[in-house]
Amino acid sequence: MAQIYAFEGLVPVVHPTAFLHPTAVLIGDVIVGPDCYVGPGASLRGDMGRLVMQRGSNVQDNCTLHCFPQLDTVIEEDGHIGHGAVLHGCRIARNALVGMNSVVMDGAVVGESAFVAAMAFVKAGFEVPPRSLVGGIPAKVLRTLSDEEIAWKSEGTREYQDLAVRCRQSLTPAVPLSEPEPDRARVKSGGLAPLQQTRKAGAS
Where are the alpha helices (DSSP H) in 3-93? Predict the structure, then answer.
């Protein structure tokens, strides 16, 4: 089980269908909804404001969620937060994606089905329009997303919702083997490919 800490009488809330990695840390006013995934090393510090993960959202490895006192950090339904991202006092709207190692600051809103590119910096108060791609430091609107790109993102989020179920069922501590077994099996997956690879396949 993850490292769960009450803070000044506020105990984190975790829906029974959510998965929290044992190395994730939840402190105080944190609410994790149904079918959510919280990855290894994630830190959700509800010791100043409230942190909310709505149904089917995911927070991947080494993400940090925090906010100023009396404010909220919210990830709406099917929100998708990539490895190492930092969310501080912002709102991630339904079906939006925040890329790896990006930062979204106080009062910023990432619109529905929008993408924040990897390593972007979304400044305080910035509003990312729905169905748009932003990137850079500071982040700027680059273009409108295609239906294909949004469908690809939705498929990836469903993979994480499925992963939450699989981890609850089968993730266990283990002693490492000294060498690979003959004909070593591979992890089963739904076959989601990187977007760039998907585009190349469609063009051929």
Answer: none
Mean pLDDT of all residues in 29-40: 98
How far is residue 19's CA from residue 34's CA, in Å, rounded to a whole number?
Answer: 9
Spatial separation of the C-alpha atoms in residues 108 and 100, rounded to whole Å: 17
Asked whether 80 and 160 are in contact (CB, 8 A), the reply is yes
pTM: 0.94
Distance CA 7, CA 34 (A): 23
What single letter denotes the amino acid at residue 87? L
Strands 140-144 and 132-135: antiparallel
Contact 131, 149 (CB under 8 A): no
Q: Give strand ranges (E) for the chain.
A: 3-5, 13-14, 19-20, 25-32, 37-38, 43-53, 58-59, 64-66, 72-75, 80-81, 86-88, 91-92, 97-98, 103-104, 109-110, 115-116, 121-122, 127-128, 132-135, 140-144
Neighbours of 39 (CB within 10 A): 21
Radius of gyration over every alpha carbon of the chain, rounded to an integer in angstroms: 17
CA 130 remoteness from chain centre? 18
Strands 13-14, 25-32: pairing is: parallel
Mean pLDDT, all residues of the chain: 95
The answer to whether residue 188 scores a pLDDT higher than 90 is: no
pLDDT of residue 203 exceeding 60: no
- Interval 82-110: pLDDT, tens: 999 999 999 999 999 999 999 999 999 99
